[in-house]
Amino acid sequence: MKDPLSKIKPVVRSLSAYTLDPIETPIKINQNENPFDLPEPIKREVETRVRERAWSRYPDFVPASLLERLASFSGWRPDGILAGNGSNELIQALMMVTVGPGTRVVIVEPTFTLYRLQASVLGGDVRSVFLDANLAFDPAAVERAAIDEGADVVVICSPNNPTGSFYDLDDLDRLLERFDGIVVLDEAYHEFAGRPATSLLERHRNLVILRTFSKAMAMGGLRVGYMLAAPEIAAEVTKAKLPYNLNIFSMAAAEVAIERYDTLLRPLVELLVSERERLLAEIRAIDDLDAFPSAANFFVVRCSRLTPAELFSRLVDRGILVRNVSRYPMLGDFLRISVGTPPENDALLDALRDTLRGEKKA
Ligand code: PMP
Questions:
Q1: Residue 11: C-alpha distances to residues 31, 118, 187 (Å)
Q2: N or C: which end of the chain has fewer CB within 10 A?
Q3: How far is the CA of 297 from the centre of ligand 1 (A)?
Q4: Where is the domain boundary, 201, 228, 261?
Q5: pLDDT for res 149
Q6: What is the pTM of this model?
Q7: Residue of 70, 187, 191, 214 to mutate, ligand 1, most atoms within 8 A of C-beta
Q8: Which residue among 31, 82, 85, 88 has the greatest number of ligand 1 atoms within 8 angstroms of its CB, and so is best to mutate?
Q9: What's the total number of domains in the chain?
Protein backbone atom coordinates (compact mmCIF):
# COMPACT_ATOMS: atom_id res chain seq x y z
CA MET A 1 0.00 0.00 0.00
CA LYS A 2 1.17 3.51 -0.77
CA ASP A 3 2.39 5.37 2.28
CA PRO A 4 3.67 8.81 1.33
CA LEU A 5 4.18 9.55 5.02
CA SER A 6 7.01 7.02 5.00
CA LYS A 7 8.88 9.53 2.85
CA ILE A 8 8.77 12.16 5.56
CA LYS A 9 12.02 12.19 7.57
CA PRO A 10 11.60 10.07 10.72
CA VAL A 11 12.98 12.92 12.84
CA VAL A 12 10.21 15.18 11.55
CA ARG A 13 7.50 12.58 12.25
CA SER A 14 8.70 12.40 15.83
CA LEU A 15 8.42 16.15 16.44
CA SER A 16 5.37 18.12 17.58
CA ALA A 17 4.48 21.23 15.57
CA TYR A 18 4.70 24.74 17.03
CA THR A 19 1.09 25.65 17.85
CA LEU A 20 -1.04 28.08 19.79
CA ASP A 21 -4.60 27.52 21.09
CA PRO A 22 -7.03 29.88 19.31
CA ILE A 23 -8.77 31.23 22.42
CA GLU A 24 -10.25 34.73 22.14
CA THR A 25 -10.61 37.07 25.12
CA PRO A 26 -10.91 40.87 25.49
CA ILE A 27 -7.46 41.04 27.11
CA LYS A 28 -4.75 39.20 25.22
CA ILE A 29 -1.44 39.02 27.06
CA ASN A 30 -0.24 35.65 25.83
CA GLN A 31 2.16 36.41 22.94
CA ASN A 32 4.54 39.10 24.21
CA GLU A 33 3.17 41.53 21.64
CA ASN A 34 3.17 45.28 22.09
CA PRO A 35 -0.29 45.96 23.57
CA PHE A 36 -0.25 49.40 21.93
CA ASP A 37 -0.92 49.38 18.22
CA LEU A 38 1.54 50.96 15.81
CA PRO A 39 0.93 54.72 16.24
CA GLU A 40 -1.40 56.34 13.65
CA PRO A 41 1.19 58.77 12.20
CA ILE A 42 3.40 55.79 11.33
CA LYS A 43 0.52 53.92 9.70
CA ARG A 44 -0.45 56.96 7.63
CA GLU A 45 3.10 57.58 6.45
CA VAL A 46 3.48 53.91 5.47
CA GLU A 47 0.25 54.06 3.46
CA THR A 48 1.45 57.15 1.62
CA ARG A 49 4.84 55.66 0.78
CA VAL A 50 3.39 52.36 -0.39
CA ARG A 51 0.71 54.12 -2.50
CA GLU A 52 3.39 56.08 -4.32
CA ARG A 53 5.25 52.98 -5.36
CA ALA A 54 4.37 50.55 -8.17
CA TRP A 55 2.85 47.43 -6.59
CA SER A 56 3.47 45.48 -9.78
CA ARG A 57 7.22 45.66 -9.26
CA TYR A 58 9.26 43.40 -7.03
CA PRO A 59 10.85 44.86 -3.93
CA ASP A 60 14.51 45.90 -4.32
CA PHE A 61 16.73 42.84 -4.51
CA VAL A 62 18.83 44.22 -1.69
CA PRO A 63 16.65 46.44 0.55
CA ALA A 64 19.39 49.08 0.75
CA SER A 65 17.37 51.89 2.31
CA LEU A 66 16.04 49.60 5.05
CA LEU A 67 19.51 48.19 5.70
CA GLU A 68 20.92 51.69 6.06
CA ARG A 69 18.25 52.62 8.57
CA LEU A 70 18.81 49.37 10.44
CA ALA A 71 22.52 50.16 10.49
CA SER A 72 22.07 53.55 12.12
CA PHE A 73 19.36 52.17 14.41
CA SER A 74 21.51 49.30 15.65
CA GLY A 75 24.99 50.77 15.32
CA TRP A 76 26.20 47.95 13.05
CA ARG A 77 27.48 47.98 9.46
CA PRO A 78 24.88 47.57 6.67
CA ASP A 79 26.84 44.80 4.93
CA GLY A 80 26.50 42.73 8.12
CA ILE A 81 22.72 43.07 8.27
CA LEU A 82 19.99 40.90 6.74
CA ALA A 83 16.29 41.66 6.88
CA GLY A 84 13.80 38.83 7.10
CA ASN A 85 10.13 38.00 7.02
CA GLY A 86 10.04 37.94 10.80
CA SER A 87 13.10 36.87 12.75
CA ASN A 88 11.72 33.34 12.56
CA GLU A 89 12.72 33.26 8.91
CA LEU A 90 16.26 34.28 9.79
CA ILE A 91 16.50 31.66 12.54
CA GLN A 92 15.55 29.12 9.90
CA ALA A 93 18.01 30.47 7.31
CA LEU A 94 20.80 30.55 9.87
CA MET A 95 20.05 26.98 10.94
CA MET A 96 19.96 25.87 7.30
CA VAL A 97 23.51 27.07 6.70
CA THR A 98 24.94 25.81 9.99
CA VAL A 99 23.05 22.63 10.92
CA GLY A 100 23.12 19.26 9.18
CA PRO A 101 22.93 15.67 10.42
CA GLY A 102 24.92 15.41 13.65
CA THR A 103 25.74 19.10 14.05
CA ARG A 104 25.86 19.74 17.76
CA VAL A 105 23.51 22.55 18.77
CA VAL A 106 23.30 23.68 22.39
CA ILE A 107 20.19 25.49 23.56
CA VAL A 108 19.58 26.96 27.01
CA GLU A 109 16.24 25.70 28.28
CA PRO A 110 13.52 26.51 29.01
CA THR A 111 13.46 28.72 25.90
CA PHE A 112 11.66 29.55 22.65
CA THR A 113 10.70 26.18 21.16
CA LEU A 114 11.52 27.03 17.56
CA TYR A 115 15.30 26.57 17.97
CA ARG A 116 14.98 22.91 18.88
CA LEU A 117 12.32 22.34 16.24
CA GLN A 118 14.30 23.91 13.39
CA ALA A 119 17.61 22.32 14.38
CA SER A 120 15.95 18.91 14.75
CA VAL A 121 14.21 19.06 11.35
CA LEU A 122 17.68 19.58 9.85
CA GLY A 123 19.06 16.55 11.66
CA GLY A 124 21.02 18.45 14.31
CA ASP A 125 22.04 16.85 17.58
CA VAL A 126 20.34 19.22 20.01
CA ARG A 127 21.66 19.32 23.57
CA SER A 128 20.05 21.21 26.42
CA VAL A 129 21.69 23.13 29.19
CA PHE A 130 19.39 24.53 31.85
CA LEU A 131 18.80 27.78 33.68
CA ASP A 132 19.57 27.66 37.40
CA ALA A 133 16.93 27.13 40.09
CA ASN A 134 16.15 30.87 40.12
CA LEU A 135 15.63 30.75 36.34
CA ALA A 136 18.81 32.78 35.79
CA PHE A 137 21.45 31.83 33.21
CA ASP A 138 24.30 29.67 34.43
CA PRO A 139 27.21 30.88 32.25
CA ALA A 140 29.58 28.21 33.58
CA ALA A 141 27.14 25.47 32.53
CA VAL A 142 26.73 27.09 29.09
CA GLU A 143 30.51 27.24 28.65
CA ARG A 144 30.89 23.61 29.68
CA ALA A 145 28.23 22.47 27.21
CA ALA A 146 29.64 24.66 24.45
CA ILE A 147 33.38 24.27 24.86
CA ASP A 148 34.00 21.04 26.76
CA GLU A 149 31.39 19.09 24.82
CA GLY A 150 32.43 20.47 21.42
CA ALA A 151 29.28 22.24 20.28
CA ASP A 152 29.09 23.79 16.82
CA VAL A 153 26.33 26.27 17.51
CA VAL A 154 25.01 27.68 20.79
CA VAL A 155 21.67 29.48 20.84
CA ILE A 156 21.05 31.95 23.66
CA CYS A 157 17.84 33.92 23.89
CA SER A 158 18.38 37.07 25.98
CA PRO A 159 16.11 38.36 27.38
CA ASN A 160 14.96 34.76 27.35
CA ASN A 161 11.49 33.76 26.25
CA PRO A 162 9.63 32.62 28.38
CA THR A 163 11.54 33.52 31.57
CA GLY A 164 12.88 37.04 30.87
CA SER A 165 16.37 36.00 32.07
CA PHE A 166 19.23 38.20 30.85
CA TYR A 167 22.64 36.85 29.82
CA ASP A 168 25.29 39.11 31.32
CA LEU A 169 27.33 40.80 28.57
CA ASP A 170 30.68 40.08 30.27
CA ASP A 171 29.76 36.39 30.45
CA LEU A 172 28.78 36.52 26.78
CA ASP A 173 32.07 38.20 25.90
CA ARG A 174 33.98 35.41 27.66
CA LEU A 175 31.94 32.69 25.93
CA LEU A 176 32.56 34.27 22.52
CA GLU A 177 36.26 34.53 23.28
CA ARG A 178 36.71 30.94 24.38
CA PHE A 179 34.23 29.16 22.08
CA ASP A 180 35.17 28.31 18.48
CA GLY A 181 31.63 27.81 17.22
CA ILE A 182 28.84 30.25 16.43
CA VAL A 183 26.82 31.89 19.19
CA VAL A 184 23.33 32.88 18.07
CA LEU A 185 21.96 35.55 20.38
CA ASP A 186 18.21 36.06 19.95
CA GLU A 187 17.57 39.62 21.09
CA ALA A 188 13.89 39.71 20.14
CA TYR A 189 13.17 41.65 23.35
CA HIS A 190 16.34 43.75 23.66
CA GLU A 191 14.52 47.12 23.66
CA PHE A 192 12.97 46.21 27.01
CA ALA A 193 16.34 45.32 28.52
CA GLY A 194 18.29 48.32 27.23
CA ARG A 195 21.60 46.45 27.16
CA PRO A 196 22.19 45.31 23.56
CA ALA A 197 25.15 43.09 22.67
CA THR A 198 25.98 44.96 19.46
CA SER A 199 29.27 46.27 20.83
CA LEU A 200 30.52 42.67 20.95
CA LEU A 201 30.07 42.18 17.19
CA GLU A 202 33.18 44.17 16.36
CA ARG A 203 35.44 41.87 18.36
CA HIS A 204 33.73 38.52 17.79
CA ARG A 205 33.13 37.18 14.29
CA ASN A 206 31.31 34.20 15.83
CA LEU A 207 28.43 36.27 17.20
CA VAL A 208 25.13 36.42 15.28
CA ILE A 209 22.35 38.59 16.71
CA LEU A 210 18.70 38.17 15.74
CA ARG A 211 16.07 40.82 16.28
CA THR A 212 12.45 41.50 15.44
CA PHE A 213 9.93 44.26 14.77
CA SER A 214 7.18 42.08 16.27
CA LYS A 215 7.53 43.17 19.90
CA ALA A 216 8.77 46.63 20.94
CA MET A 217 8.28 47.95 17.41
CA ALA A 218 4.57 47.02 17.50
CA MET A 219 4.61 45.28 14.10
CA GLY A 220 3.80 41.63 14.88
CA GLY A 221 1.28 41.58 12.01
CA LEU A 222 3.81 42.79 9.44
CA ARG A 223 6.55 40.17 9.88
CA VAL A 224 9.92 41.91 9.91
CA GLY A 225 13.07 40.69 11.59
CA TYR A 226 16.77 41.33 11.13
CA MET A 227 20.12 39.73 11.72
CA LEU A 228 23.41 41.40 12.70
CA ALA A 229 26.63 39.51 12.02
CA ALA A 230 30.08 39.68 10.49
CA PRO A 231 29.60 40.53 6.78
CA GLU A 232 31.10 37.20 5.69
CA ILE A 233 28.59 35.29 7.85
CA ALA A 234 25.71 37.43 6.55
CA ALA A 235 26.81 36.61 2.99
CA GLU A 236 26.53 32.88 3.72
CA VAL A 237 23.12 33.14 5.41
CA THR A 238 21.86 35.10 2.39
CA LYS A 239 22.20 31.91 0.35
CA ALA A 240 19.47 30.18 2.38
CA LYS A 241 17.12 33.14 2.48
CA LEU A 242 14.41 33.34 -0.16
CA PRO A 243 14.76 36.24 -2.60
CA TYR A 244 12.28 39.10 -2.08
CA ASN A 245 11.40 37.73 1.34
CA LEU A 246 10.23 41.10 2.55
CA ASN A 247 7.19 42.67 0.89
CA ILE A 248 7.08 46.39 0.08
CA PHE A 249 4.49 47.15 2.76
CA SER A 250 6.44 45.59 5.61
CA MET A 251 9.64 47.13 4.35
CA ALA A 252 8.15 50.63 4.30
CA ALA A 253 6.65 50.09 7.75
CA ALA A 254 10.01 49.06 9.18
CA GLU A 255 11.66 52.15 7.71
CA VAL A 256 9.05 54.52 9.12
CA ALA A 257 9.05 52.79 12.51
CA ILE A 258 12.81 53.34 12.76
CA GLU A 259 12.52 56.98 11.67
CA ARG A 260 9.86 57.65 14.31
CA TYR A 261 11.14 55.31 17.03
CA ASP A 262 12.42 57.97 19.42
CA THR A 263 9.31 60.11 19.36
CA LEU A 264 6.53 57.55 18.97
CA LEU A 265 7.71 54.10 20.03
CA ARG A 266 10.40 54.55 22.65
CA PRO A 267 7.95 56.20 25.11
CA LEU A 268 5.67 53.15 24.81
CA VAL A 269 8.59 50.82 25.48
CA GLU A 270 9.52 52.88 28.56
CA LEU A 271 5.95 52.72 29.80
CA LEU A 272 5.88 48.93 29.33
CA VAL A 273 9.11 48.59 31.31
CA SER A 274 7.70 50.60 34.21
CA GLU A 275 4.45 48.63 34.02
CA ARG A 276 6.47 45.40 34.18
CA GLU A 277 8.11 46.54 37.40
CA ARG A 278 4.73 47.62 38.84
CA LEU A 279 3.17 44.24 37.97
CA LEU A 280 6.09 42.29 39.44
CA ALA A 281 5.87 44.20 42.74
CA GLU A 282 2.08 43.96 42.99
CA ILE A 283 1.92 40.29 42.06
CA ARG A 284 4.58 39.43 44.65
CA ALA A 285 2.37 41.08 47.28
CA ILE A 286 -0.53 38.70 46.51
CA ASP A 287 -0.69 35.62 48.77
CA ASP A 288 0.53 32.41 47.15
CA LEU A 289 1.81 34.10 44.00
CA ASP A 290 5.41 34.66 43.05
CA ALA A 291 6.71 36.56 40.02
CA PHE A 292 10.25 36.19 38.69
CA PRO A 293 12.49 39.10 37.62
CA SER A 294 12.51 39.83 33.90
CA ALA A 295 14.33 42.07 31.41
CA ALA A 296 11.58 41.71 28.80
CA ASN A 297 7.91 42.73 28.34
CA PHE A 298 6.72 39.52 30.04
CA PHE A 299 7.56 37.43 33.09
CA VAL A 300 6.69 34.10 34.65
CA VAL A 301 4.54 33.60 37.74
CA ARG A 302 4.13 30.63 40.04
CA CYS A 303 1.09 29.96 42.16
CA SER A 304 1.43 27.71 45.18
CA ARG A 305 -2.33 27.16 45.53
CA LEU A 306 -3.68 26.52 42.03
CA THR A 307 -2.17 24.54 39.19
CA PRO A 308 -1.16 26.57 36.13
CA ALA A 309 -4.11 25.07 34.21
CA GLU A 310 -6.52 26.12 36.97
CA LEU A 311 -5.20 29.66 37.21
CA PHE A 312 -5.13 29.92 33.41
CA SER A 313 -8.80 29.02 33.12
CA ARG A 314 -9.85 31.31 36.01
CA LEU A 315 -8.21 34.16 34.10
CA VAL A 316 -9.86 33.15 30.82
CA ASP A 317 -13.22 33.21 32.68
CA ARG A 318 -12.42 36.84 33.48
CA GLY A 319 -11.54 37.64 29.89
CA ILE A 320 -7.76 37.47 30.24
CA LEU A 321 -5.57 35.21 28.12
CA VAL A 322 -2.07 34.43 29.39
CA ARG A 323 0.30 31.66 28.32
CA ASN A 324 0.40 28.33 30.11
CA VAL A 325 4.09 27.41 29.91
CA SER A 326 3.85 24.44 32.26
CA ARG A 327 4.91 22.00 29.52
CA TYR A 328 8.31 23.67 29.19
CA PRO A 329 11.17 22.02 31.08
CA MET A 330 11.51 23.43 34.64
CA LEU A 331 8.29 25.43 34.32
CA GLY A 332 5.75 22.83 35.47
CA ASP A 333 4.29 25.31 37.99
CA PHE A 334 4.37 28.44 35.85
CA LEU A 335 2.32 30.76 33.66
CA ARG A 336 3.83 33.48 31.47
CA ILE A 337 2.21 36.90 31.45
CA SER A 338 2.93 39.65 28.91
CA VAL A 339 2.77 43.27 30.06
CA GLY A 340 -0.40 44.93 28.75
CA THR A 341 -1.64 48.51 28.73
CA PRO A 342 -2.04 50.06 32.21
CA PRO A 343 -5.84 49.37 32.29
CA GLU A 344 -5.21 45.78 31.14
CA ASN A 345 -2.62 45.36 33.88
CA ASP A 346 -5.05 46.72 36.47
CA ALA A 347 -7.66 44.21 35.26
CA LEU A 348 -5.10 41.41 35.54
CA LEU A 349 -4.19 42.40 39.10
CA ASP A 350 -7.88 42.57 40.09
CA ALA A 351 -8.51 39.16 38.55
CA LEU A 352 -5.52 37.61 40.33
CA ARG A 353 -6.49 39.12 43.69
CA ASP A 354 -10.14 38.05 43.35
CA THR A 355 -9.28 34.56 42.19
CA LEU A 356 -6.88 33.90 45.00
CA ARG A 357 -9.03 35.57 47.64
CA GLY A 358 -11.95 33.31 46.67
CA GLU A 359 -9.87 30.14 46.82
CA LYS A 360 -9.72 28.02 49.93
CA LYS A 361 -6.35 26.59 50.81
CA ALA A 362 -6.25 22.86 50.08
N1 PMP B 1 12.52 34.97 18.98
C2 PMP B 1 11.86 34.93 20.13
C3 PMP B 1 12.62 34.74 21.39
C4 PMP B 1 10.48 35.07 20.16
O5 PMP B 1 9.84 35.01 21.32
C6 PMP B 1 9.78 35.24 18.95
C7 PMP B 1 8.30 35.38 18.88
N8 PMP B 1 7.56 34.82 19.85
C9 PMP B 1 10.51 35.28 17.78
C10 PMP B 1 11.88 35.15 17.82
C11 PMP B 1 9.85 35.40 16.46
O12 PMP B 1 9.75 36.67 16.08
P13 PMP B 1 9.22 37.08 14.64
O14 PMP B 1 7.83 37.54 14.85
O15 PMP B 1 10.13 38.18 14.27
O16 PMP B 1 9.32 35.93 13.72
A1: 28, 11, 28
A2: N
A3: 13
A4: 261
A5: 87
A6: 0.96
A7: 214
A8: 88
A9: 2
